[in-house]
Amino acid sequence: MAMAIAAPLSRPRWSATALTWYISAFIFILLGSAPPASLAASDGGSAGSDNNGDDDDDPCLLYLAQSTIPNAGLGVFAGASFKKDQQVGRVGDAAILTVDQNWHLSSEGVSVSKGEGDYHWPLTNYDWNAPDIGCEWEAEDVSVTVTGFGAAPNCHFRLINIAEHKATYDNAGLDRYKSPGAGASTPWFNRSSTALWDIEAGSELFVDYGQDWFLTRDGVFELVPVADSFEKAQSFLKHYGELLVGSTNPDDLVEDKMALDEDARRDLWDIIRTFPYVTRERQALPVNHEDAIRAIHGDIQAIEKENSVRSVQYLKERGKCMDNIVPAKSNIPHAGRGAFATRLIPKGGLVAPAPVVHIADKSSTNMYNEKIGRHGNIVRDESVIVTQQIILNYVFGHPNSTVVLFPYSSNVAYINHHATEYNAEVRWAKDFSFYHKNEWLSKPVDFLEEQWTSGLLLEFIALRDIQAGEEVLINYGDEWQAAWDEHVQKWHPSNSDTLWTKTTDNNTGLSEYLRAEVLNDDMATPIRTMAEQAVEPYHSSIHFKCYVNVNHLSPYEFEPLTRPYFKREWDRRVDMRDDSDDVHYNACNVTLRYESDEDDSGDDDDDEVEEGAGAEYLYTIELEVKKEFGNTFISEFHVITDVPREAIAFVNLPYTSDIFLKNAFRHEMKLPDDVFPKAWMNAILEN
Ligand SMILES: *[C@@H]1O[C@H](CO)[C@@H](O)[C@H](O)[C@H]1NC(C)=O
Ligand SMILES: *[C@@H]1O[C@H](CO)[C@@H](O)[C@H](O)[C@H]1NC(C)=O
Ligand SMILES: *[C@@H]1O[C@H](CO)[C@@H](O)[C@H](O)[C@H]1NC(C)=O
Ligand SMILES: *[C@@H]1O[C@H](CO)[C@@H](O)[C@H](O)[C@H]1NC(C)=O
């Protein structure tokens, strides 16, 4: 009694037998309903290209291949095994900031302020919150695009096997007073990913996007199961088992007792899986009916875990190696980092696959000046484009189009330009049709704009043999070269930093720029007090924060007439406890410095008490703290004495790092004429 199978996206065609009715009701009741969503067909594709980790002594560590999660598109797989806590891959990923985008892009208006923007910026779906990366202080509103692990792996709550860490600020030695490359590349480097437990070779890698990420993206992404969905799916399976054998007893789940034969079970399972209303719960069900039966009294997760491993052979044949390049200091002057081959890449071989996020209008990277608005507030001045977001330097475009493409796989962001001695080029993938939608290349830009998930795959291909250790270079195009030449010619070293945002701020900087990280690493040099800073200031980008607990037990009975004043000694038990919610890094001023007088280091009886550098100093700090009590704001003044160096930190002010330099270079790379789709050429060159 085989049953007809419903065609995806059409009303069910099978005859309305009692059983079908029962099943429909059953699916609705147990899995809930949702608007119809497309059931993307998937295929395998075959990527077998040269240089795909065939050497067993030097396995490719990471592959891009079809995800084991149905409809999830691309997945990242371990090409070798990784031990718990081991870094997965050779170097962490680059992180690229996009700042104050709502302010710059939200719909036109006289008094644009921060709020929900309705601009089309598909990277929103790939971005991380700044605190996850450690760069939240860079600007008022920061979101971060992370390449590689930050964007390519899937999230599967029950199978997460990768922990991600913060990035480090490291601008590869580009000095803002000496290099025209300063601020032209992202300084956020090495956002590393480690194994949460031992990972076997072939495993798909899953990172945690946070449940909210999925719940807020219905209709944009395929409905990906979240933790709840699995519980519901598991309980659905129990009912399914009962339907098959009329009992919930595991012992009854045997072939003879089944109401349906194997073919019928397969058909029935297909109906359930392809029922025209997709829900997260249904997506959590096992794909094939054998797994469904195993999971009735088992665990969907255990079966999924098994199913989330591909053979290394499969990866070699049908995956694309993402581990052929690593970042290191570039040979190209002012370029910062470059991408270097980890192994021989033969002529015609794959350097790196590069899934791209398409951005329909590159003007969405524009950043505008500020002006004083009608009501005395600061508003956007659209007549002055001050610069573009730094991500512009990492996208491919074409002068005759508004479309730009951001490649997001590991390390391709580091591939530099050479106008003549390039050894690689970019082309469209010819396979991976489960992901790469070749038909988009002939669709108009309006169509692209409505596609909210990425669906295009570029490949970097070697034009000649590239030796292990050699830098990979492509040609960014004549327009890029001309723009860079002009930039270098016009650029001149300057001791006053001109930073672009906040024209209302005074950013002249009286001393050489030195980052807080550098000052913090130097624990030996005493911190200059306010009086000393008046003579010998720190750079204007530097402020202080202190570990202090400014809470106190005395509540205000009435609003004080004068500013409450508190003075006390710093106390480690109160001011630097890790476990206390009351302890915060507060903005502070350092007003006095004195040598620590106590001699309680009794065991250190060598009379060599260090003087000068290394001597222990204590500090007096002052801070103003604004507190809110109901509708009343009270500003308190605290003076805290005997504060040790370790409780004081230098911090960088927002809008002061190199990417905010007004004269930092911005230009997209060009995708060659024969690669960039004609259908997207919606802009005619003006000259
Ligand atoms: C990247 O970060 C990891 C983890 O902090 C560290 O072990 C590794 O040495 C760093 N790699 C580079 C190239 O800085
Ligand atoms: C900016 O700072 C410089 C140096 O302290 C000072 O001379 C100048 O007056 C300041 N400008 C404004 C607008 O505050
Ligand atoms: C530090 O001192 C300056 C100048 O007196 C003052 O404007 C600022 O508010 C002080 N900062 C704190 C945190 O008290
Ligand atoms: C770009 O536009 C210009 C001006 O219309 C045209 O001459 C040129 O051929 C176009 N380039 C391509 C690759 O179509």
Short descriptors:
binds 2-acetamido-2-deoxy-beta-D-glucopyranose; alpha+beta; 3 domains; Beta-clip-like; 4-stranded antiparallel β-sheet; signal
Describe this structure in words.
By secondary structure, the protein is of the alpha+beta class. The chain folds into three domains: 16-40 and 212-307, no CATH class; 62-206 and 313-474, Beta Complex (Beta-clip-like), CATH 2.170.270; 516-653, no CATH class. It is built from 15 helices and 30 strands. The strands form nine sheets. The protein has a five-stranded antiparallel beta sheet with strand order 4-5-3-8-7. It has a four-stranded antiparallel beta sheet with strand order 10-2-1-11, covered by helices on one side. A four-stranded mixed beta sheet has the order 12-13-22-19, with no helix packed on it. Helix 5 (227-245) crosses helix 8. It is globular and about 90 Å long. Bound molecules: 2-acetamido-2-deoxy-beta-D-glucopyranose (4 copies). Residues 506, 508 line the site of one 2-acetamido-2-deoxy-beta-D-glucopyranose (NAG).
Provide the structure class: alpha+beta
Helix share, percent: 10-25%
Within CATH, the superfamily of the largest domain carries the name SET domain
The total strand number stands at 30
What fraction of the residues are assigned to beta strands by DSSP? 15-25%
Shape: globular
CATH level-two architecture of the largest domain: Beta Complex
CATH class of the largest domain: Mainly Beta
Distance between the termini: 71 Å
Largest sheet: 5 strands, antiparallel
Number of domains: 3
The strands making up the biggest β-sheet line up spatially as 4-5-3-8-7
Tell me the CATH topology of the largest domain: Beta-clip-like
Instruction: Specify the number of helices.
Output: 15
Ligands, deduplicated: 2-acetamido-2-deoxy-beta-D-glucopyranose
